[in-house]
Amino acid sequence: MFLICGEALFDVFLQNGQASWPALDYRAIPGDSPFNVAIGVARLGQPSALLGAVSTDFLGQQLQAVLQQENVATRYLLQRALATTLALVSLDASGHPQYAFYGDKAPEASLTVAELPTLDEQITGIHFGSYALVRSPTAEALATLLQRESGQRLCTLDPNIRLNVEPELARWREVIEHHAGLVDLIKVSDEDLQLLYPDTDPAISARRWLSGRCQLVLMTRGGDGVCVFSRQHGEWQHAAGKVNVVDTVGAGDTFQAALLCYLAEHDLASPQGVASLSRAQIDTMVQFATRAAALTCSRRGPELPRRHELG
Known about the structure:
Layout: E1 2-5, E2 9-14, E3 26-31, H1 33-43, E4 48-55, H2 58-69, E5 72-73, E6 77-80, E7 86-91, E8 97-102, E9 125-129, H3 138-149, E10 154-158, H4 169-180, E11 185-189, H5 190-196, H6 202-209, E12 216-220, E13 226-230, E14 234-238, H7 251-265, H8 271-275, H9 279-297
Parallel strand pairs: 1-4, 1-9, 2-7, 4-5, 4-6, 9-10, 10-11, 11-12
Antiparallel strand pairs: 2-3, 7-8, 12-13, 13-14
Helix pairs in contact: 1-7, 7-9
């Protein structure tokens, strides 16, 4: 089972990407990156659970209901009498999302070190990512969890930077660098690396992360494909497949979920498994994840694929 750490909230989309007065037409969809990854893993046929905190309000109850419907375990979710966070989403002409977050006292920011669970042998991998990593006290709790479990289980990271939640770049850099030094695999977008280090070539940052524990960094570049940085095998690129893009919401989360699914399916979901990946296996894994992400891009919103759709 993969334990996905982080937030669950509602993405509230402006329909058709524009205002229509006198009323605005919005559609609320459960989401954000950790929530999507947990569902993506389950849809691809691997057991998953979400670690974090959700509201006891009716929206929080809906989030839990969706997770249960999608066969994501909720036993690691805590309950909080705090309002569910909302992310208002608008899509630009190319289908790229822009977010505005509403939730000053967010449930996902309330997890403490004392509330961290003891994990049994069912948990083979732990995934970290998005803004729960930088919001206290959850930030300190997740850093403690990673420090405790690094080297014992597969640990992966997708920074998923959200400057409109935490605008302080120094905070993001501190946390991401800490985590990057302890995980086995990093999936990161070139946009996130450019946000983190605007004056540095993203490839330089990716290479630097291989100096810690990390064995493999996969830098996604949207329509320009994926750059692979492997400690064992060097660097190379994968072209993106052709796809009729409706929007890109959830594409990165799908890619991440597919990576975890591939590793589990091939008995490689461990620190030793990632270290042993051959170049051919990395290529197959990236191609599988790229096909999965392309399916999500061909649909409206974070409609992540199921295993049978990928052959």
